Amino acid sequence: MSHLPPSAEDLPRWRAAARIASEARDLGIRLVVPGARRRDVAEAIEGFIRSKGAAPAFPANLSRNDEAAHFTPGPDDAVEFEAGDLVKVDVGAHLEGAIADTADTVEVGGSRRYENLIRAAREGLRAGIAEVRPGGAVDAIGQSVAAAIRARGFKPIVDLTGHSIEAYLLHAGKSIPNVPGHSSATLVEGEVIAIEPFATNGVGAIENGPFGNILRFRSDPGPADPVLAGLYARFRTLPFATRWASRPEEAAALRRARRTLQAYPVFVERGRGRVAQAEHTVLVGPSGAEVLSAPLDG
Fold it and tell me: What is the pTM (predicted TM-score) of this model?
């Protein structure tokens, strides 16, 4: 397993994964309509990624309203989207570990009540991308993201960040904050990062909510438990949905392996404000950002 930025020979795979992820994101945005079931939308997004020869880098996240991130439907979820829901469609795809991570926000039913909040997140994303260059300060990204969001009268969420990405490693260790004063790091040519502003009309911070139906292996559990070993071979250290491993023997193996698994809680806005998100996967190119996931509209 590599823990290095992609080589020049690997970059076509990363670009292809990003195209697939961006198409899956846009499909999800179109499918989030009143009366659509959350599980159906998630499975359609993930099925599209697989149909293109890639695999989901993490479960399709469909966090609503004051949920900022980390919700995916469980195996028996029958909840339908309602007009007025503010839904973050956060999608990841990978090709042999080359990961792309991208998101956008849609207001279900098109009432446009939260249009400015959605625009704040998107404008924050564009402002952050404009700061990307080799040797550039990560803090400059946070400054620009925060300024753009605040210019529309909203708050950036201070304790959610973007992140560096490496092969089979979605969060590779470098954080990309959405506010200034939280990083002294600099950007390195050739590295891949996700910039993901979260804008809110709440207090600008999150707290842990209920389990979001997402798990991740912290490490290789070894061959002693064949069912568990098979699950690790499928998912490696990438996040996966409980509905992807819902056969009785798989569910039992996961219960046995709790100590080797990370469970993801839903991140909920602390003031119960509405949250919008926008995200791109970006390559730090020799003269600036190469946005690997397709540009967002608006």
Answer: 0.94
